[in-house]
Write a structure and sequence with these properties.
heterotrimer, A alpha+beta, B mainly alpha, C alpha+beta, A: alpha+beta, Alpha-Beta Plaits, 2 domains, three-stranded antiparallel sheet, two-stranded antiparallel sheet, elongated, B: mainly alpha, disordered N terminus
């Protein structure tokens, strides 16, 4: 019946105002106002004892002055803005630099004089990733044959100067490594979840193992 | 967030205070006018401050409520629960540069915000709040209260035209001319809605209207309430009639060229209008400050104003807006017709009341008003539904979709 | 009796405007309130996608295609990847085809939600229906985050399949979404479809007859709203669309209301397709092994898919190297703008924004 459609719309809006089941996506980043119940839960007490032991805090939180941090739930597969690079696995092959559509990875290697008889290990002098121009597509991670480069899982990489956005090799070496499980099924199988805080060491992130001496001899026996 | 009712302060009491003060200082009888002047100034000062603070908190409330309707929070960073947000806004606007376009008409441009704010404030003079001790106390006893309100709200349309004309901007003039046309054409339904109230109350004074509501007029004449509510929503240019400030078309309408404190004044005037309209609607249709004697009359008044404001917010956050020619059609065809019909209906029932001897000292008895209420509600719902269906069926029926024979993948009618 | 002489006035609805869906410029000539002439000017978002594609290899172009129609990345990826597979004769395993269809239908729902929300925003409903639509779209974007780590520019597909299988949490969240979504669509309909103000503003506005639509080359929901029953998923089925059962909604008169309603019904059909796919999917590989640098044989190929905005096609010419020689995109939003002038002249200012909103253009696709 015409004439009632307007009121049906009003009913929908009122339902969204009132019923809590329709308000499932409110996440207030970086922090939100805490009620006394939230504070009690953080302190691992039940609310009554919390109100008894911390009256000033309860009063402040009723006035709306206490905050707790809040964040949107992220999946372990998230392609973050930092990179996790393991220099003990990297050989300086520059497959990542070749595969990058924007060409923002710059790699300069030098001979290190180590393992000269077995084909020379390389010293990575320069390994710059410019995240000011990166689009986080992950093709570099897809290209790495040695599982040395992984996507990170953070997203708060804002800096004050554009030149600070270039991550150089020292920062990559010393950063805390939280690789995301994007394109790394071996990390998913291990139950690795960077959001919940698991980190991984260089021995644990690889897909492949170094072949044993017999396998090497079998494969390249006729050298 | 609502203006606090004048508890012990009213015009007469302040006048007495100042008279005693003047006698104490020793000026004598011929300076009685000074007491009146001082009392008037202090009352006005109080009212203006209270209204401006109320508008500031109303902006906070509106942003929080509309955000809640949209499943998000409103401003909650400035101060606890975002209470200090209006002050942050005003601070920002004061610090902005006060530009005046080069070729603009400077006097008209500068006076337009003031011309928009002053009438809105002046309406508050005649609104009867209740008070603690004295149920009849109010700010000014005009015996032509309603006529004053109608006259004063007409200045809004010329203020909007001044704002657009002074800006010397194609888009601003376009918006303000549409606005002026709309505001002028909605004054007639407003007056028609008020006339039906006047028939039953018998006097133009606001206190008399409140007193004659032994049954609230919203129950007695729902059609009049609908006409008045629609007309005053359009006078305030709120959704669904806010075409003149539609930001998604043609810039920002008549306030394109305003910045800084002038824009703050325009903004203030625009947000004061719902509060003032709520006060007028409460007085005319919702029984003013009547209620159980548990609370003082002022609190009842504030509560009813709050309900009207909430309903206006609810409409704003749900419905889209009408096009300008549809708005004009709605005023001149629908509301005008309904308003006239309502006047005839109420006048007919009033005459019948005189036949049945149901009139006591100028107003109807409660029983007769209850009978009128039942009859009127039935008639209103019937009329509105019939009109909507007749017109709606003509315009809005859609034929069943049939696939076009031009290209249908060889599938025909399946 | 002499009437007042009026002059038509030309206004520039500039590239920066709150309601032209991107950097899109319109030069409109008004006579009073009525529109007399219209000239669209675009190109403000041209980034040279087709030229850039000639210097990148076939996997890197997937990231370029994401950003053309940035609202519906999966369909762009699918169209491109199908063309490369057609060019180099790569077979795609079945599980990959099912996952592709599920992602594309989810993306269709997300794109239509965005279109509906913005149409209502243009109507003036103060962003309330917009926020409701986006709240549901957030759930779909969370599903995409589980699949491929990003929410909008996805790069999920590769020539040969999809690059990563869906994790376990994906299927349970998808089931929750599918069971909740029809209720949500009913709620949205009771807010919008029977609202008299929406009816008064959209019925009969911006008519496009079926002959006009076919002559201008328009495809997608706009064509179907003009009562032409044409959908690439049924006309020349690709992937596994011939194994699922769905209807094609059409409109009756080609006005703005029909275009909105066709999109709403298409969302319901997408839910049907997804639930059938979930029942039919089997475990298996999701990507055939292709070399890192694909070198297709010399030749050319064209293939198209039914994207949310219309028929999206890629025409590629290969010369045997690692980059294509020519990559031409048939962008649906660009072609859908052809009858814009005929649709809008004669209407009023307030209708201009609504008709433009109902065509649902994305400037990334118009300008590439």
């Amino acid at each position: 019946m015409y004439g009632l459609g307007l009121f049906k719309g009003l009913g929908v809006t009122m339902k969204n105002l009132v019923s809590p089941s329709r308000q499932f996506n409110i996440v207030q980043y970086p922090n939100r106002r805490a009620s006394p119940f939230d504070l009690a839960k953080i302190d691992n007490q039940n609310p009554v004892s919390f109100i008894a032991t911390h009256p000033l805090k309860t009063f402040r939180s009723l006035l709306g002055l206490e905050t707790i941090t809040d964040r949107m739930p992220q999946h372990a597969n998230f392609r973050g803005e930092e990179f996790a690079w393991y220099d003990r696995r990297c050989t300086g092959c520059a497959s990542c630099a070749k595969y990058c559509p924007l060409g923002i990875i710059k790699i300069v290697t030098g001979t290190s004089g180590v393992n000269q008889q077995e084909g020379q290990s390389y010293d990575i002098d320069v390994f710059d990733i410019d995240i000011g121009r990166c689009m986080f597509c992950g093709l570099c991670v897809e290209a790495c044959p040695y599982d040395a480069l992984h996507m990170g899982s953070g997203f708060e990489e804002g800096k004050y100067r554009r030149s600070d956005l270039v991550i150089n090799v020292d920062q990559l070496k010393s950063a805390e490594k939280k690789p995301s499980t994007w394109f790394r099924p071996q990390l998913t199988d291990r139950g690795h979840d960077p959001i919940k805080g698991s980190t991984a060491d260089w021995e644990e992130v690889g897909r492949h193992e170094k072949p044993s001496l017999e396998d090497q001899n079998k494969r390249w026996a006729k050298r | 967030m609502n203006p606090t009712p004048a508890l012990f302060i009213s015009f007469e009491s302040l006048e007495k205070v100042f008279e005693t003060l003047i006698e104490l200082i020793g000026f004598g009888e011929s300076f009685g006018w000074l007491a009146t002047l001082l009392a008037g100034i202090s009352i006005s000062f109080l009212i203006i401050n209270v209204m401006v603070m109320a508008t500031a908190f109303y902006t906070w409330f509106e942003r929080r409520m509309i955000a809640r309707f949209q499943v998000r929070r409103g401003p909650n960073r400035n101060g606890p629960f975002g209470i200090l947000q209006p002050f942050a806004d005003v601070l920002k606007l004061i610090m902005k540069e006060d530009t005046i376009p080069d070729e603009a008409d400077k006097p008209v441009f500068t006076l337009a915000p003031i011309a928009l704010l002053a009438p809105t404030l002046m309406i508050m003079i005649v609104i009867p709040f209740g008070t603690f001790l004295n149920k009849e106390a109010f700010l000014s006893n005009l015996n032509i209260g309603i006529l004053f309100i109608i006259g004063v709200t007409s200045v809004n349309s010329i203020a909007i035209f001044m704002a657009g004309w002074g800006s010397r901007n194609k888009y601003a003039i376009l918006g303000s001319m549409r606005g002026a046309a709309m505001l002028i054409s909605y004054e007639i339904p407003m007056a028609l809605g008020i006339t039906s109230v006047l028939i039953l109350s018998g006097s133009l004074a606001m206190t008399e209207i409140v007193r004659s509501q032994s049954v609230w007029f919203i129950l007695v004449m729902p059609m009049g309430f609908f006409v008045f509510m629609a007309a005053s929503t359009a006078e305030m240019s709120r959704t669904p009639f806010d075409q003149i400030e539609a930001e998604s078309e043609l810039g920002s309408g008549y306030n394109t060229e305003y910045s800084g404190i002038k824009f703050a004044v325009l903004f203030l005037a625009e947000f004061m209008a719902p509060i003032v309209t709520a006060a007028v609607v409460t007085t005319l249709f919702l029984g003013g400050s009547q209620g159980f004697d548990f609370f003082p009359g002022g609190i009842w008044f504030a509560l009813k104003m709050f309900i009207v404001i909430f309903v206006l917010l609810w409409f704003r956050s749900t419905w889209p807006r009408l096009r300008i020619d549809q708005i004009m059609g709605f005023a001149w065809k629908t509301l005008f017709g309904l308003g006239l019909f309502n006047i005839f209906l109420v006048a007919a029932e009033f005459t019948l009341a005189r036949e049945f001897n149901q009139i006591h000292d100028g107003s109807l008895t409660t029983d007769y008003m209850l009978i009128m209420a039942a009859v009127n509600w039935f008639i209103t719902i019937a009329v509105i539904l019939i009109m909507a269906n007749v017109v709606g069926r003509k315009k809005y029926t859609r034929p069943e979709p049939t696939p076009s024979p031009l290209a249908n993948m060889g599938m025909g009618e399946n | 009796m002499a009437t007042i002489r009026t002059e038509p006035v030309t206004i520039n609805l500039g590239p920066q405007h709150p309601s032209t869906h991107g950097v899109f410029r319109l030069r409109v000539t008004f006579d009073g309130e009525e529109i007399v002439d219209l000239e669209p000017v675009f190109g403000y978002l041209h980034r040279g996608t087709e030229k850039l594609a000639e210097t990148r290899n076939y996997v890197q172009i997937v990231t370029l295609t994401d950003r053309m129609d940035y609202v519906a990345s999966m369909s762009n990826n699918l169209a491109y990847v199908r063309t490369v597979e057609k060019l180099s004769d790569i077979e795609v395993p079945e599980r990959a085809q099912y996952i592709r269809v599920i992602s594309v239908e989810l993306q269709r729902i997300a794109s239509h939600l965005m279109a509906t929300g913005f149409l209502l925003n243009d109507l003036g409903a103060l962003a309330t229906p917009l926020v409701y639509c986006f709240r549901e779209r957030e759930r779909i974007l969370d599903l995409f985050e589980m699949l491929c780590g990003a929410r909008i520019t996805l790069s999920y597909m590769r020539p040969g399949g999809v690059f990563q299988d869906a994790p376990e949490e994906f299927w349970s969240s998808l089931n929750t979404l599918i069971s909740d979504f029809p209720n949500y669509l009913d709620e949205l309909e009771s807010l919008i479809t029977t609202n008299e103000i929406v009816l008064a503003r959209t019925i009969g506005v911006g008519l496009l007859s079926d002959a006009q639509a076919i002559d201008s080359g328009v495809t997608g929901p706009i064509l179907r709203a003009s009562s032409v029953k044409w959908d690439l998923r049924k006309a020349s089925p690709y992937e596994i669309y011939d194994r699922v059962d769905f209807d094609i909604p059409i409109g009756s008169s080609g006005d703005t209301y029909d275009r909105y309603y066709v999109r709403l019904q298409e969302m319901r059909e997408s839910i049907k397709i997804i639930s059938q796919c979930i029942k039919q999917i089997e475990p298996g590989p999701v990507r055939t092994e292709t070399p890192f640098f694909i070198r297709p044989p010399i030749g050319e190929a064209y293939s198209s898919v039914e994207g949310p905005k219309g028929e999206l096609g890629f025409y590629m010419v290969s010369d045997g190297g690692i980059s294509p020689y020519r990559c031409k995109v048939r962008a649906p939003s660009f072609i859908n703008l052809t009858p814009l002038r005929d649709m809008i002249t004669g209407w009023k200012m307030g209708d201009l924004i609504i008709i433009l909103g109902s065509i649902d253009i994305v400037l990334g696709e118009v300008d590439r």
